[in-house]
Amino acid sequence: MTQFTLLRGVWAETLKMKRSLALIVALLLPLFPAFVNVAETLRSGLARAVDDVEILSPWALYLRSAIKLWVILAMPIVVAILSALLANVDHKPKAWKLLFALPLPRGAIFAGKWASLVGITFLSMAVFVLANAVGGSLIQALRPELGLSFPIPLAEVISKPLLGWLLSLFMLTIHLWISLRWPSFLIPIAVGFAGAVSNIFLIASYLYSKSLVSPWAMPAQVYGEWQGALVASLIGAACTYLLARRDFVRRDVY
Fold it and tell me: What's residue 240's pLDDT?
């Protein structure tokens, strides 16, 4: 597969997004955890843990609550919905026969799907970052006593969500495989919701430090031992990508 065929696959998937709800979902769903955090901060302030108040800046306190909600609950659901929408573009009209008859290698088609999902989840993460910055500015205007002063610490606003996105690549690749393998829209959504619910029990228990056992819990390590989780996520994503691509290339279409 040459670089040209890969770019053709990515471009084709980009055009297909115009016929799906993927872009709308990517732009709107990240606003939910940011909005919830802004509302809670305006209501109860930043002092949610005495220890945190002593060691963290106001911006770090504000961001930590939003990012935890994002990586633990919202991200598995967002990834599940986006992967299902990208696959449903070809599942719904039963377009696989026509797609596989085109002079484009199946490997390039799969690579295009994967690159599109990676790109649109990155866009979703960027919207979340922007929403956090705007939300913090709004809190500063309404409750200046909380200390979210300007300038906005961009390193703190960007670094953890970006790390969470990298930690989600294993989960993302699994969801793409599931979405392409089964035409039912409900299967990847159910897996995503199950992953989010399992995160609540896993992270709230003594197994938090062992969250590497779950690809859906790896992004939650942004405030933990993320180095090992990042290595595991990248290796898991690479292995799953190769297996999923092999399955996609060899699949019979009826």
Answer: 95
DSSP letters spanning the chain = --HHHHHHHHHHHHHHGGGSSHHHHHHHTTHHHHHHHHHHHHHH-S-S-HHHHHHS-HHHHHHHHHHHHIIIIIHHHHHHHHHHHHHHHHHTTT-HHHHHHSSS-HHHHHHHHHHHHHHHHHHHHHHHHHHHHHHHHHHHHH-GGG--PSSP-HHHHHHHHHHHHHHTHHHHHHHHHHHHH---SHHHHHHHHHHHHHHHHHHTSGGGGGGGG-TTTGGGGGGS-HHHHHHHHHHHHHHHHHHHHHHHHH----
Type of residue at 197: V
**Over 80: is that where the pLDDT of 51 sits?**
no
Which of 182, 181, 164 lies closest to 243, judged by CA? 181
Copy the structure tokens of residue 49: 């843990």
pTM of the entire structure? Answer: 0.86
Task: Flag whether pLDDT at 174 surpasses 90.
Answer: yes
Q: Please give the structure tokens belonging to residue 141.
A: 């205007």
Using CB atoms within 10 Å of the CB of residue 103, give its burial: 0 to 12 exposed, 13 to 18 middle, 19+ buried.
exposed
